[in-house]
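Hey team,

Filing this mostly as a record. A colleague (T.K.) asked me to run one chain through the structure pipeline before their review meeting, and I want the input and output archived in the tracker in case anyone asks later how it was produced. No errors, nothing strange. Just documentation.

Input sequence:
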Amino acid sequence: MAKLKTNKGAAKRFRKSKGGKWMHKPSNKRHIMTSKRRKRKRQLSQAQVGSPADRKSLQRLLPYT
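Output structure:
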């Protein structure tokens, strides 16, 4: 059987936590930061847990993680 290739775009955006959940950085933290409140910017800087509905597709994109 041939090796499975890792999707490099997904590898740069997602990682697996120790508990097996998929983590990702949230969107909306790239520009126009002056109109966003401090609390919102602080919360956007932390990694978030991905949706359980996307687990199967992420495992297909990242087979060796």
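Quick notes for T.K.: The CA atoms of residues 6 and 64 lie 7 Å apart. Strands lie at 14-16, 22-24, 48-49.
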